[in-house]
Recover the amino acids of this structure.
């Protein structure tokens, strides 16, 4: 008899325990960004963006429409017959619902944390372009210089830099000389004659045969 009396009590306690267990309601995470828009057709709509989930909720005319992000460039959300294309800051959107013409909407207010702008990759500095090497001036085809020498002579030399030769005119005679580059000037040599010429050809030392060198200066 005792067992028959306790069985209904146990069953009732089980039912009460099941009924008293609190249920956890499903909750959508708080939106990252909520924006109120005023559209060109006069409508006022609100979109709550859930960036972490890649979704959004459109509130229009008292009805809500779930949207999924389908593209990031441009930022595009779609759900059912609704398409929303937003600019990077989500301050402006183009809204298309069903067969209606697309209408543009501008933000009137916003709340929550706005999306962080995309970070552009660092731009490597452009290395400076090295200037072209200086071009050596082209020597003249011919230079004629008259000199007064320390021994009283007056001579004239015709230089041909491009051919690397010179012609010495001395005492009514011409002597052909070959050029050698001997920094900081030039040396011209010929039969029994040597001219050691400064780089600017304004001074030279002339040696002829066994005589000592004679300094000459451009006249």
């Amino acid at each position: 008899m005792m067992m028959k009396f306790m069985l209904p009590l146990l069953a009732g306690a089980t039912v009460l325990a099941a009924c008293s267990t609190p249920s956890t309601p499903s909750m959508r995470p708080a939106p990252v960004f909520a924006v109120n828009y005023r559209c060109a057709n006069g409508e006022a709509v609100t979109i709550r963006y859930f960036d972490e989930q890649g979704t959004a909720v459109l509130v229009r005319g008292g009805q809500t429409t779930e949207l999924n992000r389908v593209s990031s460039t441009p930022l595009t959300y779609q759900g059912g017959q609704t398409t929303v294309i937003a600019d990077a800051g989500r301050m402006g959107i183009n809204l298309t619902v069903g067969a209606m013409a697309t209408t543009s909407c501008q933000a009137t207010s916003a709340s929550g944390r706005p999306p962080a702008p995309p970070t552009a990759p660092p731009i490597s500095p452009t290395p400076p372009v090295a200037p072209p090497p200086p071009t050596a001036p082209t020597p003249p085809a011919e230079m004629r210089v008259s000199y007064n020498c320390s021994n009283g002579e007056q001579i004239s030399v015709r230089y041909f830099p491009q051919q690397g030769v010179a012609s010495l005119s001395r005492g009514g005679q011409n002597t052909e000389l070959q050029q050698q580059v001997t920094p900081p000037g030039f040396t011209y040599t010929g039969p029994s004659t040597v001219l050691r010429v400064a780089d600017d050809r304004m001074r030279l030392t002339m040696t002829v045969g066994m005589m000592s060198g004679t300094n000459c200066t451009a006249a």
Remarks:
- Residues 33-112 form a domain with the Lipocalin fold (CATH 2.40.128).
- The chain has two domains: 33-112, 143-218.
- The helical segments are 2-20.
- DSSP finds one helix and 16 strands in the chain.
